[in-house]
Fold this sequence. Notes:
The protein is an alpha/beta fold. It has 19 helices and 17 strands.
Amino acid sequence: MDRVLIVDDEKGMRDFLSIMLKKESYAVAAAESVERALQALSAGDVDLIISDISMPGQSGLDLLKASKAASPDTPVIMITAYASTESAIEALKLGAYDYIIKPFDVEELKAVVRNALEKRRLEHENRALKRELKEKLKFDELVGDSPRMKEVTDLITKIAPTNSTVLISGESGTGKELVARAIHAASARAERPFVSINCGALPDELLESELFGHVRGSFTGAVTAKKGLFEVADGGSIFLDEIGDTSPAMQVKLLRVLQERRIRRVGGTEESEVNVRVLAATNQDLETLVRDRRFREDLYYRINVIQIRMPALREKPEDIRPLALHFLVKYARIMGKRITRISDEALRCLTDHAWPGNVRELENVIERAVALESSDAISVDSLAADVRSGSRGVEAFPVALVDGGIDLERQLETLREHFMEEALRRANGIQTKAAELLGMSFRSFRYFAKKYHLLDGRRDSSRVAAN
Ligand SMILES: Nc1ncnc2c1ncn2[C@@H]1O[C@H](COP(=O)(O)OP(=O)(O)OP(=O)(O)O)[C@@H](O)[C@H]1O
Ligand SMILES: [Mg+2]
């Protein structure tokens, strides 16, 4: 039985509506003031509110605002005495379901009540379905059921519904951002934005205006006012990536937001409240940074309410195979290729490799292998050179002619690819520099880099994203 709360200061109207709605088999409660109505609301058993707009003391609009804040799903129908009054329009803006003008037609009121409750029911169902689906999708995405990953997913399930700040630590490429997204998706904030920003990639002034926004003319180039990400993420979560890379000045500003939950736009004077859950990540050891006085201790304690430590891939070798297959399916689909397996020999190389770049490195290796492979199974030949030689690295290259002979051309190719990869890494991806390190001409470096697909799959980490 749906429960309707009638709010009107006139007893005659309350009684009339009560009798009418009870006849329609609703459970009815009545309140003569906004204060009383709010008490009934906080008791929690109201599915619909019908309220007069003008009442002595607090008005129906006050009730509307309060009820939207306390239980946004409960539809509110307003009753007003005058046609198209400003307050009726205002009520719709504030989220009222509809308004009815006195004197009203009883059948009309019944229809509005029915529709409001039906809409509420559908929305509820929809939301439940969506949440279920989303949760499933997210946790499907976090591949791996090694004991270490099991700990991580258990912790996510436990903490997601809370509003606590979470610090996600771990080496590069271990899945920190993925975990942040999973926490958001499994929380009550899932329908609101998840906003991510790399704090290490921007200079202070830019980072500040990205995070907090700015008012018009606050600095050269600020031709219009701009919302900061804390505002964009309102009701949702913000992911502060590489928080260990922030400057001392920035750390003070972040501490203030975390303590006071208020922000001020750059150049602005007004403060506004923010309702955002903070998720932070670092691939540095924050405790060491604190000890070296490069990270504020008070900020560290603010962030480190709950910590999730992401295991390196080498600490969960059982997950290599399922992850590799997961990425195989993903990239085969994207590239439209019929590759369904990984050969035993290739799998051995994958499990032998040390994976300094963790899951991201594995993903890149599989992406590249799928691109190069022409059979229906990933073979050793399509793996990157350093993976092909397992974790043993260059030591695995033969220095003497073994009994069975060697394939010199292939060994040389492998060796070249290995050194080029290493050089690119040291040169931070700058090809001319990498070529120089190897005494190669830029032309020939570029030729082989293309041949080995060394430039594919490089990801831009200096990204500011919102969805
Ligand atoms: N358990 C996992 N299951 C599926 N994919 C994963 C898993 N862990 C990581 N990945 C994938 O690996 C890639 C790297 O993950 P992510 O960006 O979350 O790492 P990170 O820890 O934030 O790295 P960095 O410190 O370099 O920013 C992403 O494409 C992500 O989808
Ligand atoms: Mg990341």
